[in-house]
Design goal:
The chain has about 290 residues and is α/β, with parallel strands linked by helices. It is built from 13 helices and ten strands. Strands 7-6-5-8-9-10 form a six-stranded parallel β-sheet, with helices on both faces. A four-stranded parallel β-sheet has the order 1-2-3-4, covered by helices on one side. Helix 1 packs across helix 2 (about 30-40) and helix 11 (about 245-255) packs across helix 12. The chain is elongated, with a radius of gyration of 21 Å. The two termini are about 30 Å apart.
Length: about 290
């Protein structure tokens, strides 16, 4: 809990014994606990609050009182914090990185991957990769399957709303055209099998890892037009969140117009190189070193 005395004392002891230069917190409770634990320490570490999601900040006090610096995964999230009255000089946007040595185009194994996972070899294959929870647009995903009859769909991932999504597919009668894979490793094999990536999330996104990975693998993406997503994938096909018709029409266009599909793929592949994990990590390293 936010004001759990036992947790505060334990964290204070850990910090006193280990003498870190920096402590990074990632959510509300740990920010309060660490902030209170270090408030009156003689040798106080620098505190960094990392912000990954674009959910509205209900109580900005922990952002104002405790951290020496705040890092966000997108400029849109940074602007949202500034709008809540947090000093702009305190906040730095540090984009998420993608491992371009691992996630890369690999057309040579497309047929092999489809055989491995039991996907149709000749159908246009559309995939989603995400934790299956409500705000990932899972109901819309299933409706898009219904409205885009010329594709076969797969979902890689697990989560608290998996059964809800499976039941929705059964209710709409599309369970024969959607394959729920559960958690998959190595996930790049799924991207190598796909013709398109579908990501109809409705809220809360920072910079989705799977969207960066899809682009890095050369897969054209159809995704929600949310501020942080637009930063990560301006060359994807962007649709208004919840607009099932627009999503399904975009999938159909990728199916029918292979030149358009290649254009989206090529432009996205060129764009995603700015998220090269090697360079991103160098930037994060400089950021932390500057703080100390």
């Amino acid at each position: 809990g936010t004001f759990d005395a036992a947790s505060i004392l334990k964290v204070r002891t850990l910090i006193r014994d280990r003498c870190p230069y920096i402590v990074v917190t990632h959510s509300s409770i740990d920010s309060w606990v660490v902030g209170l634990a270090t408030r009156f320490m003689n040798r106080r570490p620098k505190l960094v609050r990392a912000r990954h999601l674009s959910t509205p900040v209900k109580n900005p006090l922990s952002y104002r009182w405790f951290p020496d610096a705040i890092s966000t995964t997108s400029e849109a999230i940074r602007r949202g914090l500034i709008d809540r009255g947090i000093s702009a000089s305190k906040i730095r946007a540090l984009p998420t990185g993608v491992d371009l040595s691992r996630f890369r185009p690999n057309l040579a194994v497309k047929t092999e991957m489809r055989k491995k996972y039991g996907f149709p070899e000749k159908d246009f294959l559309v995939g989603g990769v995400f934790v299956i929870r409500s705000w990932k647009g899972i109901q819309d995903f299933v409706k898009i399957v219904l409205e885009a009859p010329n594709g076969f769909f797969v979902v890689a991932g697990d989560g608290p709303s998996r059964e809800t999504m499976v039941r929705a597919a059964e209710t709409l009668g599309v369970q024969q055209r959607i394959n729920f894979l559960g958690h998959v490793e190595p996930i790049e094999e799924i991207f190598w099998a796909l013709d398109a990536f579908l990501f109809p999330s409705t809220a809360n996104e920072g910079v989705p890892q799977a969207l960066l990975q899809a682009q890095a693998c050369g897969v054209p993406s159809v995704t929600s037009d949310l501020a942080s997503i637009r930063e990560a994938a301006p060359h994807a096909v962007l649709c208004a969140p919840g607009d099932v018709k627009s999503f399904s029409q975009s999938i159909q266009k990728l199916i029918s117009d292979r030149n358009f599909s290649k254009k989206v793929s090529d432009e996205s592949l060129a764009w995603v190189k700015r998220f090269d994990q090697t360079e991103v990590l160098k930037g994060i390293d400089r950021y932390y070193r500057d703080l100390i």
